[in-house]
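Quiz preparation item.
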């Protein structure tokens, strides 16, 4: 099918919408929406992504005028799939229109799914961690409201990760601890506790409130009796010993030692570098 056919369908749909001849039968909004949808799919087959997205949006607008809100939300979602190939901002705008309809209709599970898609576009395509964090947090709230704990926690971990990268350590700690609490009694996720505690503990240390950091590690050991025997807990204790004594060499050796056994990812490495920079700063200013 050619792009010319798509344009002919659009022209036909436009004429239907402009017509006041309702007495000839049929529903002009419904018929126009079908024509726009056909045209949108033709553009999609021809990889004309912008035209495809624009045309699916026209279908959605016709469906809204016909009070076909569920169909309109799907058309906006179809538009976003095309826009993703050419315009991240347009994809987000279409998803937001779909989400508005879904939340109005109480379909929060579906709304959360597409809110997560918005967050992912901000994260991967636009590399805007602040907006990605905000979008993931909204999705987490909606998933939690629908008792989809695993999906909520997945979003919260993204929020925590980005918060730490942006220097918002208190927020990161709150979210890591929230996920840890939700995972305590779940046999499928309990194995991840040591990772959540490690990340939250590093964020505590990065705030330079070492007393609070010690208290936090002690609290994690009480929350999960197996944590004290893990390499992650021992690493946190070693890092705290190094910062307490302002010993950069000890700090470096403990990081290398841990990394040799459990490879540090870029996120942990960045936090550890921030901690290393802070060692001895307070004493050097006195």
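Solution:
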């Amino acid at each position: 099918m050619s792009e010319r056919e798509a344009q002919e369908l659009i022209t036909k749909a436009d004429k239907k919408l402009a017509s006041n001849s309702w007495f000839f039968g049929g529903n002009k909004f419904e018929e126009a929406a079908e024509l726009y949808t056909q045209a949108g799919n033709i553009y999609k087959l021809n990889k004309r992504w912008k035209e495809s997205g624009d045309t699916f949006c026209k279908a959605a607008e016709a469906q809204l005028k016909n009070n076909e809100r569920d169909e309109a939300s799907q058309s906006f979602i179809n538009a976003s799939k095309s826009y993703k190939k050419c315009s991240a901002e347009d994809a987000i705008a279409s998803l937001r229109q779909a989400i508005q309809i879904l939340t109005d209709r109480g379909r929060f599970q579906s709304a959360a799914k597409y809110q997560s898609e918005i967050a992912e576009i901000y994260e991967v395509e636009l590399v805007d961690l602040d907006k990605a964090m905000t979008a993931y947090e909204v999705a987490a709230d909606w998933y939690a409201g629908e008792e989809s704990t695993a999906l909520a926690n997945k979003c919260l971990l993204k929020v925590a990760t980005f918060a730490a990268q942006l220097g918002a350590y208190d927020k990161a700690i709150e979210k890591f601890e929230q996920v840890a609490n939700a995972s305590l009694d779940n046999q499928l996720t309990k194995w991840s506790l040591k990772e959540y505690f490690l990340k939250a503990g590093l964020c505590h240390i990065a705030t330079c409130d070492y007393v609070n950091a010690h208290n936090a590690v002690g609290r994690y050991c009480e929350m999960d009796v197996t944590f004290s025997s893990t390499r992650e807990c021992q690493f946190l204790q070693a890092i705290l010993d190094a910062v307490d004594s302002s010993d950069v060499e000890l700090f470096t050796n403990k990081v290398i030692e841990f990394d040799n056994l459990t490879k540090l990812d870029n996120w942990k490495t960045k936090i550890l570098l921030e901690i290393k920079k802070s060692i001895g700063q307070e004493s050097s200013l006195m």
